[in-house]
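Proteins fold reproducibly. Take a tokenised chain:

. . .
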Amino acid sequence: MAPPRSGFSAALAIGLALVAGSFALAQQTSPKQVRPAPPQVPIIRASTTLVEVPVLVLNKRGEPIDTLDKTNFNLYDDGRLQKISSFDNQPRPLSLAIVVDTSDYDAIDQAKRSAELITAMVIGAQGKASIFIPGPEPRQLLPFTGDTNKISDLLRHLAKSPTAPQGEGSITEPLNLAMLDLQHQPRQDTRAALVISRASTKGGEQAQAIIDSGMSDAIPIFHISPNRPKNAPAHINPDSTAERGTGQGSQRVIAPPSPVDARGQPTSTAGMGNLDLAPIIGAVSGLAGKVLAPHHLDYVYNSGGVSYSAGNDSDFDQKLSRIGDDLRAIYHLYYTPNDLTRQAELHDIDVRLDLPITAGIGTTSFRRTYLGIAPH
């Protein structure tokens, strides 16, 4: 029989028991109490529209100016001054869609003659390019690649395209195809198109289609009209009356050209069939009652590019080199408009330079429009 405890001993025993129980309870509950709350992952919602505006500033000699800064630009959306949220004037890698009017022998011969110049001075070591041609079925002959040997080899192997059903080959159809493909190239690149063609850069539903499709992206188009190269070979046009005849049954059907590889051998490019312009044409018809001004029908002007015309081979080479310089001197301005609606609306962009008259500015090219839709 245990001896009776004194009052102090009993109290001490009870106290120790309570402490032990509390410690045990703390061991059971403390992990939940001291465990830090999980970090809150921010939920990013698309509540703004960021508009990119490529800008090219030329001096009075037509040479690009690349020494301006953000404070030299004033940017307007439908006449309202905007805050430029971001500004970049550093040269970027180039994604270039080359569109050669292979319905025209001069365009073909100049592309062949200047193949090395195009790869060296326009595309450059860090760039990549793709090649598109017209015809009854506009085609991408070469997917985007940085292999300049493939690009130059294919340019040197270009051949005459069959005549399109409407007569002369339409350059706007392969250009539309090129613009759609450029939209899938990296946005951190300078994405642009180079058109070698005598064809005009304005007029008609197809030119409007290029403008419509370009409203969702900032992709300038550069156009150079070729001269007839010196010592160009004599060509027999297989689509001429002399070759095709005039009698019944003499109009032979020519199969669409097959895509070729870098050596000019037939190959295949999946997914590059006939281009259906119907979903593009009229995409912005009736938007806010706006109608593009006549000069806006020039898709080069509208996109922020430049048109050049060559008088001889040396001039053609100089203009190509100038385009290469232009592409590396593009300013990229960004802003977030605050007046978008849920309805699709055509917006006009205007860029004005804050510079003294003595700065020697010639012309300024920039993206002129975009299709504004408020994000949900």
Remarks:
- The mean pLDDT is 75.
- The longest helix spans residues 7-34.
- The domain at 46-90+330-376 is CATH 2.60.40 (Immunoglobulin-like).
